[in-house]
Amino acid sequence: MPERVxxxxxxxxxxxxxRLGLIGLWAALGVTPWCQAKQEVRVGAYINDIQNLDLSxxxxxxxxxxxxxWREKDSNPPASVEFNNPYELWxxxxxxxxxxxxxxxxxxxxxxxxxxxxxxxxxxxxxxxFDKQILEVAFEDSELxxxxxxxxxxxxxxxxxxxxxxxxxxxxxPSMSFHERAYPTGFGFGKNPMQSHYSRVLxxxxxxxxxxxxxxxxxxxxxxxxxxxxxxxLFNPTYVDSRVGIGITALLTIVALQIxxxxxxxxxxxxxxxxxVYLLAYLFxxxxxxxVVKTTWMLEKGNVEAAIRFDRIALMGxxxxxxxxxALTLFLSKL
Length: 335
Prior knowledge:
Elements: H1 8-29, E1 39-54, E2 59-70, E3 81-83, E4 86-87, E5 93-96, E6 102-103, E7 109-120, E8 132-141, E9 149-160, E10 170-171, E11 175-182, E12 197-208, H2 211-229, H3 240-262, H4 273-300, H5 304-332
Parallel strand pairs: 1-9
Antiparallel strand pairs: 1-2, 2-7, 3-8, 4-7, 5-7, 6-7, 8-12, 10-12, 11-12
Helix pairs in contact: 2-3, 2-4, 3-4, 4-5
């Protein structure tokens, strides 16, 4: 039989229809074809001010400028940017520096937005009052996914006001990073949830408390109470009322100090560092009161010298254990 002749025109049609079907399959799955170029938007930020860090609400106020540079004429990325971690969104004030994007000499379109408002991040307070925190500001495009628009770093993408001060904290060097954020939902558009990916920009500002200052402000008072409570061991065992009074007063003072301190902290389900210090102080005073009870019974038996000796031994033992426990707690906290 004669061989069937396949014309080049037939081959071209087959290739065309096969590629058309592949594109339709991509569209059904919500996958962007490799030939479609992503829009790159260069971004940078300037941190102008940080105020009102509120531990109880895990929020803080930030005043920052964010600039954008892109090539596409019919695009306006700043208009569709949304911040991902706002606190009280109604309180944010956003302004654009230019009414319309500014065309730069190199062909880029340029726009700057200024946002003033409160942001939120769940603060980890394990080592309070010697904790180190990272304040975050995150934003992404609210319309186009990462298959259509991505954010990349501009030259010198993050700077901070050199005169910026946050009372009670030392501000470190900020950083800017870029991530692809995946959402396990199609947001009601019927697209594949596995394809709900958005390009996210994350600005991080590290802060920490000065250790010496907060040690004096928060640790010294409780240590002074412990020192005064230790005087119950130095009184003559016959002054039972005075010794008990010192112990009870010290115990109530520690309770008042802890209540006052916790007013500035949020509701959390774990002990912070200063709570552990107070817990050790409670144990010290309660153990001291136990020693007073023991020596009182020794006095009833006429063992005055033995009671005085027991007081001295208890003082040295409890003070050593308290100092060791405090040092171990600070060491485990990895300050």
